[in-house]
Specification:
binds zinc ion, 7-stranded mixed beta sheet, Metallo-beta-lactamase, Chain A, 14-stranded mixed beta sheet, alpha+beta, 9 helices, outer membrane lipoprotein receptor (LolB), chain A, 27 strands
Amino acid sequence: MKKLLSLALLGALAASVAFAENFTEINTDKAKALIDAAIEAHGGEDLTNNLHTLIIETSTKNYSVDQSRGTEAPWDTSVNESVDAIDLDNSIFVNLAAGSGGGFEFNNGTIINGDDSYQLNFRAGTVSGIAEPDYDTTSGPFVRVTPALLLRTLKDREANAHFLGETSIDDVDYNIVGFSMTVGPAISLYFEKDTNLLRRSERVFPGFGLVEYRFDDYVDKNGVIYNQSFTLYLNGDVNLERDITSVKVNEPLDGLLEVPTALVSIPEQQPDPLSRQELDDGVWLIGGNGTYAMFVDMGDYIFAAGGTAGIPDRIESLREAVGDKPIRYGMLTHHHFDHVLGVAAYEDEGATVIAATAHERIARRAAADGERLKLELVDERRIIEAEGRRIEIIDIGPTAHTEHLLVAWLPEEGILFEADHFAMPRVGPIPPAVTSTKTFAEALARQGLSVKRIVSAHSPKPGTREDLEQALNREEFQARQ
Ligand SMILES: [Zn+2]
């Protein structure tokens, strides 16, 4: 009886395994056939065997969705120029990017080339080595937006590709294949049925939303086809429009791998674990990994400034120093998404969130229960005093970065907390001031604030008045020769 039962069980197992195998096999075979058809449509042998290097220049218009100076559309736009170059046989990748946006100007380079890998900053005139260059991770964003490279990667990883189904959008029929690269969430690729060309792709980022890419205006170069325009949609809205202005195939990368000798060498960025420093009696700056908050002991309670990532960890660290005092206030500097992440944490603490009046909608949206969020709005200035300590919360906007910016000003200590206008670099010289910094300095002058130390939401290192002056007086290093 026992034997019979186990045999029957085995039989049932075998049947279900066979069924599962069949289903999987049918699906992966279909995916493989679609991948082969797409490879053929995109260049066949010329794509898989005869493509060695690629140099692509682009001009991109960015829409600063939820990251503009104001809180609503139409969003601010900005344009950047970039060069991406890849040597597929030798795992070499170069990215050069220059442009502006949100009151920031940048002109940077990254070279991934084994032991000769570097991070370049042409505005500051600095270069640092990269001790552990990661070709796959660094080139990934370029590969994902370049159909020729994406298809080669898809072919290499076809063992984990799946046929996801068929769909029709705006009278065009598509087959959809899903796969994952070595890093990042799975990608769904939409191949146009008539041509087998890659037209769309999409990925879902938990907590962030749906990112869609569109590839248009294909042209032939050395037997491989390249799109001349690219559009990125974030949750259905245009986020980025790119023109591919130049495509060079199988040309050497040599010139792009050279580091201009005039650049000053600085140490490589090291990891930045959570740390706590007492700036003054009862005034702490706590953070790590690029985001920091300031906490002020008001006697019976704590005042917190800044709403960036990791507020719960920062509060935990604070409690090691001050014990169980309640957080009574949590001040938001401005409405950008990376500066309202702390709202839910303050809400959890039972604290009152302080925000600029113009940022009410965004602050409530960031809360778990927006309607019931304890919120205090500041028009121009709000003063908090306790136990002989004075904090002035001042809207010093407008700046080039945001129309309204709340700072926490401690007149007695000469300490000012701000975000996104003047962050001291962790290593290397102070770079020349960007427009955001210049307008911040103007705002401080307008308000008549004689600041001794500027504490930023994005640096563990407070800057002095002299540091700010130095940034304002430094000239930009000349752009790449
Ligand atoms: Zn910002």
